[in-house]
Design brief:
Layout: H1 3-13, H2 18-28, H3 33-40, H4 44-51, H5 59-69, H6 73-87
GO molecular function, one term: DNA binding
Protein name: Helix-turn-helix domain protein
Length: 99
């Protein structure tokens, strides 16, 4: 996702989180939480907590989710790092690039 697209979405919908992104993907694919959680290898409750920003995932788990779903690992990892910073009250912006 480009920086301009992210800024537009955040202005329209609020800050994007990994949980919101995963929820949007699941809903776009019209998949139940149970089926989607199974696909990701997590419990339905964990998925629910993630979608509602009650859980923060590691970079490793974010990368795994991206690969399973066919999305950019860099984008998912950036969102996971951003969620962690926001959770800790650190107001900085994260950018991740492949090495």
């Amino acid at each position: 996702m480009s920086t301009d697209a992210r800024k537009y979405l955040e202005k329209s919908l609020g800050r994007m989180s990994l949980g919101k992104a995963i929820r949007a993907i699941r809903q776009g694919e019209e998949e139940s939480q149970i089926d989607f959680a199974h696909r990701l290898g997590i419990s339905k409750q964990y998925l629910c907590d993630l979608e509602h920003d009650r859980k923060i995932v590691s970079a490793k788990k974010a990368k795994q989710f991206a690969e399973i779903l066919g999305y950019s690992p860099e984008h998912f990892i950036a969102l996971a790092f951003q969620d962690s910073l926001e959770h800790d009250g650190i107001h900085m912006r994260v950018e991740v690039k492949a090495a």
